[in-house]
Amino acid sequence: xTLKLYSRYxxxxxxxxxxxxxLKGVDFDYVAVEEMRSDAYRRINPQGLLPALDIGGRIVGQxxxxxxxxxxxxxxxxxxxxxxxxxxxARSIAQFIACEIHPIHNHRVRDHLMEDEGWSEEKTMExxxxxxxxxxxxxxxxxxxxxTPSTFxxxxxxxxxxxxxxPVLGNxxxxxxxxxxxxxxxxxxxxxAELDAFRKAMPDAQPDFPGR
Length: 212
What we know:
By secondary structure, the protein is α+β, with helices and mostly antiparallel strands. It has helices at 12-24, 39-44, 63-73, 84-101, 107-115, 121-144, 160-174, 183-193, 196-199; strands at residues 3-7, 28-32, 52-55, 58-61. The model has no long low-confidence stretch (mean pLDDT 92).
């Protein structure tokens, strides 16, 4: 069974899923969605959000649900540490990024602030910078509090925490947000950048990336 992933090159939630698929060595077809708010796409995924995964004709949205299904269906290699506390820590980092960082400054929020609230692009970017700084500072503190330093967020192999962290950093770089204040995060970023699973999931590696 070949999976079909609806995503877009700069869809950071989709990037999480692409990394998971790559790490697990699961083949999938990439379907680029140019406008997720279109009626055509909403007929595929009523949530009108990316990504969505087509599993033999059944389509499910939300990256966390998709990643959990992948873990249950393709358990090796696992995206979760074996130690229960480490597993909980990895989930905590991932959920903090998914629930507290990503939703506050995603494109729907920025579009609403500019189009409906009349904010300037400059003011909207100040909003983004404020929340991304608070979020990354928290993640940096969480990494600093690890009982043992590690190559990745939790341990010596990538976990779900890394899947969620790397796309957020890509968004920060896209908007020119400086990352020098987060050395532990940058260390994880460097380690992930050396792995094919992460490189192949990057926006510029997708078939719909402009210029490809």
